[in-house]
Amino acid sequence: MIRVVFDARSVVPKTSGIGNYAASLLQHMVPLAGDIEFTVLRHIESTGLLIDDERVRELKLIGGETKSVATLLRSSAVQALEGHHLFHSPADMVPPRLPCPFVVTMHDMMWIERPDLASNFLPSRVAMHHWYRAFYSHSIRNAASIIAISQFTADAISRLFPSHAHKVRVIHHGLDLTRFSPETIPNRNVLEGWIPDQPFALSVGQGSPYKNHHGMVRAFMRATVDRPDFKLVLVRRFSRVDRAMRRLLSRPEVREKVVVLQFVPDEVLLALYGHAQMLVFASHYEGCGMPAMEAMALGAPVVGSTAPAIVEMTGNATLHADPSDVDSIAEKIRALIVDEPLRQRLVKAGEERVRRYSWELCARKTLSVYREAVDSLSY
């Protein structure tokens, strides 16, 4: 029996892309892995089991999420987990001095390649660039195998750490088509009290520069100058220091048309996707871009960007705009407002595109990486 430690501390009540990835991956791997026992590390504030199975035990050993300081400075408890064949961090970082080999999932290399897109605040940008460079380097250099969530991320790892490129395996995210399905869209009245009862475009993502919210808001205002009824709903899980964005959102004409929400419950998020006229997702940089996939699965056409990972994931099912060109983004937004045949073509193409992203396939490929790593280290 193979014994694996799986770090699921990023699965917290306020969900994130990495947290959803970790939870979905584990829940789909366990039924497929009769030869594996899992020790699952949970966040100290987590409640309920991720998966109820006799081959899974859940432990709360380290405070903080996987990418927190606690992972690196309070790892003695993990070091005491003896008798395991493999450790898997699904969130870029691993505790130092593990008692067994490890596999790491790398989502992107932005903090190393483009720290200017990660933070506008210079002291934070400099400090975090060095922090991530040191610990991403530890993860990549010492991993038995590396899972990249896109070919774009794999290529970035190969550029930055060419002597470790042979360890990289590209495994795309899955998408839960039972959760993200037109049949699961809540009624529009779920949005009462959250947004006005008017047509709206949606944008989802944390408030970091790479998400390009500043450019997307400006583009939306240009594209809808003759549509005072059309709103932009901006869901931002958190916001970094961004004075330009704060000034933009304080302008009266922008306040009139842009609704800013922070964390929203899952039912509200599904309703937003399902009732939006479009998703505007013109990021400068992404490792994958799951909001685009979720929107397409729920029938919302997408204005994406030419960022390589977004093009990789969405193909011809999305309108791609240059994220640095506000007019380009505005043109694509306008096209989806006035061109109904185009909207319908993209809706159909999106529904077809998302069928290729399966959590079962992701789980099977990840289990193959586990077995490959264990087999290679046994010789």
Which SSEs are present, and which pair or pack?
Elements: E1 2-7, H1 17-29, E2 36-41, E3 56-59, H2 69-73, H3 76-79, E4 86-89, E5 102-106, H4 110-113, H5 115-118, H6 122-142, E6 145-148, H7 151-160, E7 168-170, E8 200-204, H8 213-223, E9 231-235, H9 243-250, H10 252-257, E10 258-261, H11 266-275, E11 278-280, H12 290-297, E12 302-305, H13 308-314, E13 319-321, H14 326-338, H15 340-353, H16 359-377
Parallel strand pairs: 1-2, 1-4, 2-3, 4-5, 5-6, 6-7, 8-9, 8-11, 9-10, 11-12, 12-13
Helix pairs in contact: 1-16, 8-14
Quick summary:
The protein has 379 residues and is an alpha/beta fold. The chain has helices spanning 17-29, 69-73, 76-79, 110-113, 115-118, 122-142, 151-160, 213-223, 243-250, 252-257, 266-275, 290-297, 308-314, 326-338, 340-353, 359-377, and strands spanning 2-7, 36-41, 56-59, 86-89, 102-106, 145-148, 168-170, 200-204, 231-235, 258-261, 278-280, 302-305, 319-321.
Structure description:
This protein is an alpha/beta fold and 379 residues long. It folds into two domains: 2-174 and 358-377, Glycogen Phosphorylase B (Rossmann fold, 3-Layer(aba) Sandwich); 182-356, Rossmann fold. The chain is 41% helix and 15% strand. Strand 6, helix 7 (151-160) and strand 7 (168-170) form a beta-alpha-beta unit. 45% of the residues are buried.
